[in-house]
Structures are given as C-alpha cells and as structure tokens.
C-alpha cells in the first residue's frame, strides 16, 4: 500500500489568477513518480490550470523539474511545488 503525503502547491502569476489563490495543497502517493504525473495530479485537483498545461514550469523545493523526463521524483511530506506559468515583461 502506498503512503499518501501532502505537499504544498505555490501558484505564481497567471496560475495564481486562474486558481484565485496563492497556495494550496495536494495529496499524492509517496511512491516515486515523474514530474508529468505530478503535474497531472495538480491539474486534476485544480482544473482551472488546464489552459496552462503545456506552458507551465514546476519546481520542487525551488528546483526546476523536467516535465518531459521519466526520471522519478521523490516527494516528502510538506515539500513545496511551485507552479510557474510563462512570465512576460514589458
């Protein structure tokens, strides 16, 4: 049986606007999963983020994740995942 953990989600820029909040949380199996599976879990929990699905960047504890990689990501209770959409300047 997988151990379920809770991780904090931090929403930045347009992700914050889409969800209407600056942070939230998800519960996720602690077994090792890849970055894309983490994103899918976030999108299932916060469906308003779906328009950003193909352009968002995720971080775990301030370290960027590669959403195209199948490399496992190990999460621990209370880790922080950042959801960062493209940021324009001007």
TrEMBL record:
Protein keywords: Nucleotide-binding
SUPFAM superfamilies linked to this entry: MoaD/ThiS (SSF54285)
Gene3D superfamilies xref list: 3.10.20.30
Name of this protein: Molybdopterin synthase sulfur carrier subunit
Species whose genome carries this gene: Orchesella dallaii
Species classification: Eukaryota, Metazoa, Ecdysozoa, Arthropoda, Hexapoda
